[in-house]
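Z., the sequence and structure:
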Amino acid sequence: TNTTQVVGAAVESLRGSEATAIVYTNTTSTSPLTKDIPSMRYLSYRLQLKRQNGRWLVTKMTTVTSLDLTPKL
């Protein structure tokens, strides 16, 4: 089971119909393989977006940072 929450977002640049944004997330995962001990990761992504037909579409998503806070037993 995976659960991801967006905890922050910011526009990095905006030029006409193109934009770049940074998105910060917290992700928790559980699995019977790990005896349901949750893994916790904080990730940030750089999204490249393009405006098309009145909507912003993600054209590229790159991981910027990754911090794994999973307990080591």
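The chain has no helices and four strands. The mean pLDDT is 93.

Let me know what you think.
H.
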